[in-house]
Amino acid sequence: MHPAFSVVFFTTATGTGYGLLALLGMLGGLGVIPADFWLGFVGMALALGLIAAGLLSSTGHLGRPERAWRAFSQWRSSWLSREGVASVTAFIPASIFGIGWVFLGKSGGWVAITGLLAAAGAVVTVCTTGMIYASLKPIAQWHSRYTLPAYLIFAAMTGSVLANALFQSFSASPSAMLALALLATLAGWGWKLATWRYNDRLEIPTTANTATGLTGGTVQSIEWPHTEENYLLKEMGFRIARKHSAKLRRITQALAFIAPAILLVVAFFLPWPLGAIASVLAAVAQFAGMLVERWLFFAEAKHTVTLYYGR
To answer: Is the separation of the CB atoms in 112 and 29 below 8 Å?
Structure first.
């Protein structure tokens, strides 16, 4: 797939935003973290701001952005439409929770209920986003058991690392949040390595022979159907050199997993504000690394339609 930056940013920003929203909804609503105005205001602004920025950026990939509203009507059959409905629906309890927790300084009761509903809405939305790609049978690298859990794991990972940076900055971070962020980062790293191992060993059964039904000999394309690249090749047949892919994988591991893990461990032993600085750097590095990881997610995928072009 051709990695359009709008889609790369969308999946990274919304995953982080929904991960943070889910944690704030649960921890803030249940009173685990204090109902401090500035802590809540900055936290909700970060979560909803990342979600809104991601959703808006996704329209940049549309040929006719003004028609984006029509996608909401196909929720019975389209995961893309379900994602749109879920993302908008999640804003309702999130807004009510924000009013109660941030502006009224309350937790428990109806604030806890709306916080839990916001967290549930965030999880559902991340699931629908993951299913957009996991449901695409023509793309074997996505149509696997690794895709949907990856979206949930990465949302929990980036959300918890950002939440830890937020809480540390306001001197309100329990050690449990630091531990959660570290464990989630290690889990994300392990899952990414397992996904790469699976995709590298993937044997796609479809060939030009099976696609055409011609079993005798080897089917080859003697010439291209057109002289210039078109939509199919740009969107469905992006090619990345193996050495570039390996380099970007190393960058992904360094920024998204290794550096944040080291910084989080260091933050355990540093007093405030040094621990807060280390936590913020971990969140920044991880977000940058996840942008690279999402780019690779699209670039390394191959659509079956490329068989039409002899690839």
So the answer is: yes
User: Which residues does 103 contact at the CB level (< 8 Å), separation at least 6?
Assistant: 37
Count of domains for the chain: 1
Amino acid at 164: N
pTM: 0.88
CATH code of the domain containing 280:
1.20.1630.10
Distance, CA of 134 to CA of 145 (rounded, Å): 8
- Expressed as residue numbers, the domain containing 95 is 5-309
Q: What is the pLDDT along the chain (311 residues), one digit of tens a residue?
A: 456 778 888 899 999 999 999 999 999 888 888 888 999 999 999 999 999 998 888 776 666 666 666 667 777 788 888 998 999 899 999 999 999 999 998 888 999 999 999 999 999 999 999 999 999 888 888 889 999 999 999 999 999 999 999 999 887 666 888 999 999 999 999 999 999 999 888 777 677 777 777 777 777 777 666 767 666 666 555 666 556 788 999 999 999 999 999 999 999 888 888 999 999 999 999 999 999 999 999 888 877 777 666 65
Q: Give the position of tokens 């379900």.
A: 82
